[in-house]
Design brief:
Elements: H1 3-16, H2 18-41, H3 47-67, H4 71-95, H5 100-126, H6 130-155, H7 176-197, H8 200-217, H9 220-239, H10 245-260, H11 266-297, H12 312-326, H13 328-334, H14 336-342, H15 349-352, H16 355-368, H17 374-377, E1 385-386, E2 389-390, H18 396-434, H19 437-455, H20 463-482, H21 491-504
Antiparallel strand pairs: 1-2
Length: 509
């Protein structure tokens, strides 16, 4: 057997087993999350899970490249990623590198998402049945996550969503925003699959299990995911004429129960806890401001002073005690006056204690200390750590910008925008053909993922949850460009036919 024939045989075996391979890769994700949780609980560090994740990424990337008929896509992607990394390193070296290894690990975590997406597209091009493997993988993951939550409750080892108030249930998973995003992305797909199965009991069990977990994880975006799933899938079933009101009732009944129990859930309790805290602290802040403004009156106590009428210097004098209390770390790092100006002289405690705003402000002030090129290519992750506190922002798009600059963010948005373009192109070309129940379910999950990325740092820079976004993007490509509709050839078939036709038309040598 020649080397070419042997290679073709190996590829054929791999292609045949791709659906199973995809399912296994999906199923590994929650298992690695559980392992990571227990490593942290036992104080073992994250070396093992980090190596496992990078190992899975390497295996998937090599398989994708090996099976791809368009290797130039991988080569061009690699060149773009390498060029961005080189520019980022040059900017970081101007300031002085603190921890290059940590920075490169963080970079791999970010580029994992587009790399996985490209590989899964290759898998579905070579074997469209890989889509069935993805569906099974999502179902298996949902079952594993549900089982882990039950086990954690039975053993009394369940991690709360909110550490301060000890509210919410996450099971054996470490990051609340990431786990909320994962459950939110899984829910529309597994509910759709249960609906399509036409087993009433399975649909009720799936919806109940999904909505209970989203309810008790207790984030606002988890609640939004339940609403999006119920309304979005109902709209999808109506438009595609797959309406069965007995089955659709399961979604609305569970949603109504969840909404009715909101006051007893962790989200409502935590919001009240935070609101009570900020209201109390706002009273203290108002009292502190009144005392500071009275000191400005000097010997004329009858004089009335309006804060807005004060000069900037007087405003800073009045606000200084408040800022040194509520933003003490920022004030020590960047000076009080700088922080007051960055917050635009606000005296609202909820703004000063908002963790997301706090970290964005830190990174904005940090960026001002860096070379101008950092706005294009980002800053080192370790620079965002000060006195053992990590100020890496809690919003993914902001995070990509601060870490990899406007160029990095632009590349990320362009990559995501390509799939949005595919969706819009398909709907414009033939909405009746492309808007299927599968497209609706995975489309809802995609929208949920983007919303989570905008409001949290739980998707684009978290390898456990960015994996699911990768799969969703690959599925979008499959449904638009690969899936066979009404007897049409798939995109892969058309490419093979064009290649064969081109060979036949070549002149004899």
């Amino acid at each position: 057997m020649t080397a070419a024939a042997n290679l073709e045989t190996q590829q054929s075996k791999l292609v045949q087993n791709l659906p199973l391979f995809v399912t296994v890769i999906c199923a590994l994700q929650p298992l690695m999350d559980v392992l990571s949780f227990w490593q942290a609980e036992l104080g073992m560090g994250n070396t093992l899970t980090l190596a496992l994740r990078f190992g899975v990424l390497a295996v998937v990337a090599m398989m994708g490249f090996f099976l791809s008929r368009q290797k130039k896509v991988y080569i061009i992607s690699g060149i773009v990623c390498a060029a961005l990394w080189a520019a980022h390193c040059m900017v970081c070296m101007q300031k002085g590198y603190l921890d290059p290894l940590s920075d490169v690990i963080n970079y791999v975590r970010v580029i994992q998402m587009p790399l996985f997406a490209v590989c899964f597209i290759t898998f579905m091009k070579r074997n469209p049945k890989s889509f069935e493997g993805i569906k099974r993988g999502f179902a298996v993951n949902f079952i594993i996550i549900t089982a882990v939550l039950v086990l954690s409750l039975l053993t009394g080892t369940c991690r709360p969503t909110y550490d301060v108030s000890s509210l919410g249930l996450m099971g054996w998973f470490s990051t609340s925003n990431a786990q909320s995003a994962i459950l939110s992305m899984l829910t529309p797909v597994v509910v759709w699959m249960a609906y399509e199965s036409k087993r009433y009991w399975l649909l009720w069990v799936t919806v109940a299990a999904a909505y209970i977990q989203l309810f008790y994880i207790g984030t606002r975006l988890a609640f939004a995911a339940m609403v999006a799933t119920t309304i979005g899938l109902t709209f999808t079933f109506m438009v595609t004429r797959h309406v069965d009101w007995k089955r659709i009732a399961a979604l609305f009944v569970c949603l109504i129960i969840v909404v009715g129990c909101t006051k007893y859930g962790p989200m409502y309790k935590n919001r009240n806890y935070y609101s009570d805290y900020t209201a109390t602290q706002q009273g203290y802040a108002a009292q502190e401001m009144e005392e500071s403004m009275n000191s400005l009156m000097g010997d004329d106590p009858a004089e009335e002073i309006n804060f807005e009428d004060l000069t900037d210097a007087e405003k800073r004098r009045v606000l200084a005690p408040i800022y040194t209390f509520y933003s003490n770390d920022l004030c020590r790092r960047f000076t009080v006056n700088t922080v007051i100006e960055a917050y635009n002289y606000t005296y609202t405690v909820s703004d000063l204690t908002n963790a997301r705003v706090h970290k964005i402000t830190y990174c904005e002030l940090l960026q001002q200390e860096h070379p101008a090129a950092s706005k294009l290519f980002g800053m080192e992750l370790e620079r965002m750590v000060w006195q053992d506190e990590n100020y890496d922002v809690e919003n993914d798009f902001h995070g990509v910008y601060f870490l990899f600059g406007a160029v990095g963010l632009g590349l990320m948005l362009a990559f995501l925008g390509y799939f949005v373009y595919l969706i819009l192109w398909a709907l414009k070309k033939d909405a009746r053909k492309y808007f299927t129940t599968a497209a609706g379910a995975f489309g809802i999950s995609f929208c949920i993922a983007i919303v989570n990325a905008y409001f949290t740092a739980g998707v684009l820079r978290r390898p456990n949850s960015s994996f699911y976004l990768s799969v969703l993007l690959a599925v979008i490509f499959y449904l638009v460009c690969i899936k066979k509709y009404d007897g049409e050839d798939t995109l892969a078939s058309k490419m093979i036919k064009r290649a064969k036709r081109g060979k036949r038309e070549e002149p004899a040598q």
